[in-house]
Amino acid sequence: MSESFAQIDANHDGYIVRSELRGYFERERPKREAERAKRFDEKFAQADLNRDGKLSKLEVQEKMPRLASEFAFLDEDRDGFLTKADLKPGPHR
């Protein structure tokens, strides 16, 4: 905890104020996003049983069962597969 405290306490006065905490989280955001992207890529790869770069409904049912009920909603182009782009949040959804 003391290591994090030192990183958050930007002016090293022994106190943490809201602006220092906000600054810390902003500095850490790229690291958290990279970790999240890595976990997503790993889960996608594990679910992609035939390694074709997309997930069929069967692959989703087997490896990502919580998404199975949302398959049709997520498959916007109705091609019967989910790609990484289909699963990532963004303007396409």
Structural notes for this entry:
The chain has helices at residues 2-8, 18-47, 57-63, 65-68, 71-74, 84-87; strands spanning 55-56, 81-82. It is mostly helical and 93 residues long. The mean pLDDT is 92.
What's the quick description here?
This protein is mostly helical and 93 residues long.
List keywords for this structure.
single chain, 93 residues, mainly alpha, two-stranded antiparallel sheet, 4% strand
Topology:
Layout: H1 2-8, H2 18-47, E1 55-56, H3 57-63, H4 65-68, H5 71-74, E2 81-82, H6 84-87
Antiparallel strand pairs: 1-2
User: Which H/E pattern describes the elements?
Assistant: HHEHHHEH
Helix content: 55-70%
> What is the general shape?
elongated
Number of helices: 6
Which parts are unreliable, with pLDDT below 50 for 5 consecutive residues or more? Answer: none
| Share in β-strands | under 5%
Radius of gyration: 20 Å
Largest sheet: 2 strands, antiparallel
Q: Total number of β-strand segments?
A: 2
